[in-house]
Amino acid sequence: MMLDKSCKEFIKELSSKEPVPGGGGACAYLGALGTALGAMVGNLTLGKKKYKEFEKDIERLLISAEGIIYDFERLVNKDAEVFFPLSEAYRLPKNTDEEEKIKEESLQKALVDATIVPLEIARLCLKAVDVHEEFAKKGTKMAISDVGVGVIFCKAAFQGAKLNVLINTKLMKNEKLKNLVEKELSIIEKEIIEKADRLYSDIEKELSGR
Amino acid sequence: MMLDKSCKEFIKELSSKEPVPGGGGACAYLGALGTALGAMVGNLTLGKKKYKEFEKDIERLLISAEGIIYDFERLVNKDAEVFFPLSEAYRLPKNTDEEEKIKEESLQKALVDATIVPLEIARLCLKAVDVHEEFAKKGTKMAISDVGVGVIFCKAAFQGAKLNVLINTKLMKNEKLKNLVEKELSIIEKEIIEKADRLYSDIEKELSGR
Fold this sequence. Notes:
Two copies of one chain form a homodimer. Chain A has helices at 7-15, 23-45, 55-91, 97-138, 144-169, 175-208. Chain A is built from six helices and no strands. The first copy, chain A, is mostly helical and 210 residues long. Chains A and B meet through helix 1, helix 2, helix 3, helix 5 and helix 6 of A and helix 1, helix 2, helix 3, helix 5 and helix 6 of B.
């Protein structure tokens, strides 16, 4: 599995010209790192007298965060799985009409899966930001910067996932699916950017005392 | 070393209440991941006939990227090193005037190092975005989404590092240093946000055909 590698190895393989891990998998991984930062704040809050009234909420949020991290980790592997057939399809010859037809069919088939995975990553980023929103309200103020870092990671993971959707829908012949996917993406985008930017800027103001 | 852990382990330890890895180290790691994506595009470009005129530039950029990744990796460890004394200082008792004085002195000393490291991360993020700017111009268009993902990762790494600076300068008594650091940070911010947003939006437009 991709995330069994060491962090250093992951960086090295990401920088290589090997097809995986690629940008999509890196985004799913970033979502997991961001959500882990939110969970850290939850774990630092548990058992603190000052935040006793939120204890049950924090426990619930930690369970959500754990589920989201698990899903992001799964998507790192899934992104690698769907990218292989796509890179194979790209490499098919197209010297004859027959070859061109086969290449186009393989490509279109592979593009669908390769589009759906980053879309799933994008959806999950929004769930992750929602969890951070609650950690910002109920988590220990001692670690408020970590909530802000977590939020900005999840926003970046979304923005990266978006480009990975677009590079695939760009070539997609199924206009109906293409439009559906791009429509959903823009709905998620509006919500996540608004929430993440507000959260980040609130935390920034709190820290800079402005 | 922090990055010898597996990716999964890193996520798990990040989410725990243990002091390290923390938000600062996660930002340095994200900078390395972002720069690795730029380097991937460079590596995919090398040897391509279509980009022959940029071969020498790409080779130079890859060497820069490798240096930046190395520095980010070093900063992951450095962030952990400077955070330990800070978390120790936070935990010192302050029941007597003498204890309070010792605590305040330890805290102020630890805050300086804990501020400088995320500032170094912030500076390095700008260098990384500059490298991406050139990869976007000279790298293979086949992987242009990965340049966009790399840029947005480096921007997020900067924004996270910024919060890690602010949470420390907030408590800093040395006003001169505090002002210097915050001034430099805002200069870097202006440049990196402008560059990263322009690059990301150009790539987004290119991919969505608008």
